[in-house]
């Protein structure tokens, strides 16, 4: 069957919902195609925080910041491999984007708190209520519905259609029964299909170190469909080899573990042989690789009562309970008991912790030079959590310009084609800062929608 709209948006994550809402607000007749039976993508399961300089929250907290400072932090974090024009566009527009989410979409934020992710000069990440992407997606979904934007669920875009002049004119999709549906786009197609972290064929193609040993990201939709479809009609890609992993995830689901943040409060990382193998405060990629080199490509995070009490662990009781059911965490009176649960070498573990406690007393970790405060593990109950690295974000993707137009291999915009969100490359360079994925999708989702409607 066939349907006709002004603008066809592929993907109903943060970027796609925002692009569709803006396109509609600028007068276009819009549809969203979503291959999963639900909306939200990885945005839904993210922390939902986004960075912005000079916001109302920074003002309230008396934090001085600037567009320039945010621009520089972002460029530097990506080893200067990001696109300067895109990063400038991000830095100059995100604050207004945040106000738009607050005022037009009614997203609620914590008004007197900012997260300070690593690599940012000052705290600048605005925090949605609930501390997750659920608030963003619920409000965006409700807004799209109120504006009568149809969202076709279980509708998988397969191919971007072009005319004889290489202008993009629509999308071919399959519905849940496998039937082909053609969506004609009179003005534009916007690709907002997210990253490719669950597609090992692609991750391996661009970075041979990132293979099945890493758990996939939680959303199975993250297959890079949009990247492949755009490439097929001549789009240029950039930064595809830059894939971010996170070291301490749930080994069964790939979910980033918040309980495992006890690492920042003093927990010690060991292998099945009961030995430490990496500095616990190392970069995400170094710890991830370190874990993969251990028996079963697994590591165990060990902490005691004191560390638990210094941590925010209690905030994540639901995660803790789930991991208990999955046999991924144990709380026991003694270290031996906890070690036995996971079949970790008990004798060696006791030895390792004894040595470590000695280092704490001396004030220096002689094995790995652990940074930050050293805390001895002396008091039960003890906790051991099984962790593994997972693919967290793909920095590379479709090349766009500051109007969110897709750029072809000769450096020219492809008529009628836009992209926004994780599917694009260029903003994050080699390394994305915490909180910058949502900033990216807000700014470029809006720009894509506004420009596509013209
Ligand atoms: P972003 O953060 O860039 O918005 P998300 O991961 O939040 O990315 O959202 C991307 C959405 O696109 C997901 O909901 C995913 O299921 C959807 N998607 C991916 N590929 C396709 C496709 N071929 N057709 C339709 N939807 C797709």
By CATH reckoning, the class of the largest domain would read: Alpha Beta
Count of all domains = 2
Largest sheet: 8 strands, mixed
Beta-strand residue percentage: 15-25%
Shape field: elongated
Query: Strand pairing plus helix content: what structural class?
Result: alpha+beta
Count, helices: 14
Percent helix range: 25-40%
- CATH topology of the largest domain, which one? FAD/NAD(P)-binding domain
Averaging pLDDT over every residue, what do you get? 95
Low-confidence stretches: none
Any idea what the CATH architecture of the largest domain is?
A: 3-Layer(bba) Sandwich
Structure characterization notes:
The protein is an alpha+beta fold and 454 residues long. The chain has 2 domains: 2-196 and 395-452, FAD/NAD(P)-binding domain, CATH 3.50.50; 246-391, Flavocytochrome C3, Chain A, domain 1. It has 14 helices and 18 strands. It has helices spanning 14-25, 41-45, 56-61, 67-77, 84-103, 134-146, 200-206, 225-232, 284-292, 305-310, 317-325, 335-341, 346-362, 436-452; strands at residues 2-10, 30-33, 50-51, 109-115, 125-128, 151-152, 156-162, 168-174, 180-191, 237-238, 243-249, 268-270, 299-303, 329-332, 382-394, 397-398, 405-407, 413-419. Strands 1, 2, 6, 7, 8, 9, 17 and 18 form an 8-stranded mixed β-sheet that branches. α1 links the parallel β1 and β2. α1 packs parallel to α14, α4 (67-77) packs across α5 (84-103) and α12 packs across α13 (346-362). The longest helix is centred in the first third of the chain and has 20 residues, at 84-103. It is elongated and about 70 Å long. The model has no long low-confidence stretch (mean pLDDT 95). The structure holds adenosine-5'-diphosphate. Adenosine-5'-diphosphate binds at residues 10-16, 33-36, 41-43, 156-157, 192-194, 219, 221-222, 225-226, 421-423, 441.
């Amino acid at each position: 069957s066939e349907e006709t709209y002004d603008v066809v948006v592929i993907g109903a994550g943060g970027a796609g919902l925002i692009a569709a809402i803006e396109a509609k607000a600028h007068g276009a007749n819009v549809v969203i195609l979503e291959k999963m039976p639900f909306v939200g993508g990885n945005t839904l399961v993210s922390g939902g925080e986004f960075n912005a300089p000079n916001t109302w929250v920074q003002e309230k907290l008396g934090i001085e910041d600037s567009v320039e400072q945010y621009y520089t932090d972002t460029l530097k974090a990506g080893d200067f491999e990001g696109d300067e024009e895109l990063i400038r566009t991000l830095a100059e527009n995100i604050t207004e984007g945040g106000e738009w989410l607050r005022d037009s979409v009614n997203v609620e934020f914590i008004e007197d708190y900012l997260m300070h992710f690593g690599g940012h000069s000052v705290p600048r990440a605005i925090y949605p209520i609930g501390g997750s992407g659920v608030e963003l997606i619920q409000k965006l979904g409700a807004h799209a519905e109120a504006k009568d934007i149809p969202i076709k669920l279980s509708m998988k875009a397969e191919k971007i259609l072009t005319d004889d002049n290489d202008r993009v004119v629509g999308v071919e999709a399959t519905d849940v029964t496998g039937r082909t549906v053609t969506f004609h786009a009179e003005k534009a197609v916007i690709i907002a299909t997210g990253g490719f972290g669950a597609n090992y064929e692609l991750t391996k193609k661009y970075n041979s170190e990132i293979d099945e040993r890493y758990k996939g990201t939680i959303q199975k939709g993250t297959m890079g469909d949009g990247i492949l479809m755009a490439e097929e009609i001549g789009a240029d890609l950039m930064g595809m080899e830059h894939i971010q992993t996170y070291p301490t995830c749930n080994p069964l689901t790939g979910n980033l573990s918040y309980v495992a943040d006890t690492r920042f409060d003093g927990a010690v990382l060991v292998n099945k042989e009961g030995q430490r193998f990496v500095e616990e405060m190392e970069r995400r990629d170094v710890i991830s690789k370190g874990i993969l080199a251990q028996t079963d490509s697994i590591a165990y995070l060990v902490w005691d009562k004191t560390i638990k009490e210094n941590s925010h662990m209690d905030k994540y009781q639901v995660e803790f309970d789930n991991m208990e059911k999955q046999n991924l965490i144990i709380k026991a009176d003694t270290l031996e008991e906890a070690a036995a649960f996971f079949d970790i070498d008990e004798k060696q573990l006791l030895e390792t912790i004894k040595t470590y406690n000695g280092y704490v007393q001396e004030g220096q970790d002689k094995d790995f030079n652990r940074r930050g405060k050293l805390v001895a593990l002396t008091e039960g109950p003890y906790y051991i959590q099984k962790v593994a690295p997972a693919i967290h974000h793909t920095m590379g993707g479709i090349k766009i310009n500051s109007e969110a137009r897709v750029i072809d291999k000769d450096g020219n915009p492809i008529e009628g084609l836009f992209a926004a969100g994780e599917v694009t490359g260029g903003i994050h360079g080699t390394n994305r800062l915490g909180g910058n994925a949502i900033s990216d999708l807000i700014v470029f989702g809006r720009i894509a929608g506004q420009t596509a409607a013209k």
